[in-house]
Amino acid sequence: MYQYFKNKIKLLSAILSIVISQNIQCQDQPDIGNYMFFLPLVNPAASGQYSDLSGAIFGRKQWFSIDGSPMRCGFHIINPVGNNSFGGSLTQESIGIHSKQKLFGFYTYKINFSRSKHMTFGLGGGGILLKSNFSKVKTTDAGDNMFVGSKTVLRPDFNFGIFYYSDNYHLGVSIPSMIRNTIVNNNGELEGYSSLMIDYWQYYIHGGFDVEIDKDYTFSASTLTKIAHNAPIDIDINAQLQYLNLFGGGISYRTKSEIIFFGNVKLSNVFRLCYCYHSYFNINGRYLTGHEIILTFNSQKTKPAVIQNPRF
């Protein structure tokens, strides 16, 4: 077969081989943890829960000790107007020789069942700039034309979500990507390829609740299930203890052999800083780590949002 990288990235090449196979493409969906503090990262419909100008700036580095490991950063902004919300996001993702820039706009509409119970529908769309630099691949066969040159293409994509929430619990489902975008080698020529394949869709199902322990402490728990065709189901289980909406911390377990320790602190009436430490285990006998940081903001020009604690 092919040896994609030297020494320190042998582990990464094994994972890339699953993604790459015969059609070379970017990593489909990034593995993120800071959605616990900003649900629009996994469900566009969750943007409808905010009552004032809000957003987030975020960054993530996976498998910190490995060159070419996945990285993700970007920002997200939401502007509510009555029962409607408008917004946009710009993200940068990279893994090995592949990178992806995404510029999305989105719209949500909210239905109010009562003063405390609401359902929102969200649709997002935009462009994805895919780039693959195959000249960085180290192969065992000299002159292998399957791994020569680089290619950059612009392709469309869409996402969709439904979100139901009340004062102390929420449920949601989303499709984070509806178009399969790849870069393929067609008889020695690198070409961009897009297709609408329902079998390609991944589904995120999430839910959570908040319980006031006393006047000072709030306990939050949530789960996120990721479902994909011909792939094992991934489940996140999250728990957090929050003190007076000022600071808090908790732990998350993922079925893919990963534990996340996280915390948040309120910096002001507008800003909150959140951090996640990823601990990966049982990956080819290696212990790996990752880091995430996210700065959220809520202008609260009129009144506090319905959801006071970091939304799980």
Description:
This protein is mostly beta strands. The protein has one domain (7-298): monomeric porin ompg (Porin, Beta Barrel), CATH 2.40.160. It is 4% helix and 56% strand. The chain contains one helix and 16 strands. The protein has one helix at residues 10-20, and strands at residues 54-61, 71-81, 84-95, 98-112, 118-133, 150-165, 169-175, 180-186, 189-195, 202-212, 217-228, 234-243, 247-254, 258-266, 271-283, 286-298. The strands form two sheets. A 14-stranded antiparallel barrel has the order 1-2-3-4-5-6-7-10-11-12-13-14-15-16. Strand 11 (217-228) and strand 12 (234-243) form a beta hairpin. The radius of gyration is 20 Å and the shape is globular. Mean pLDDT is 81; it is low at 1-27 and 302-309.
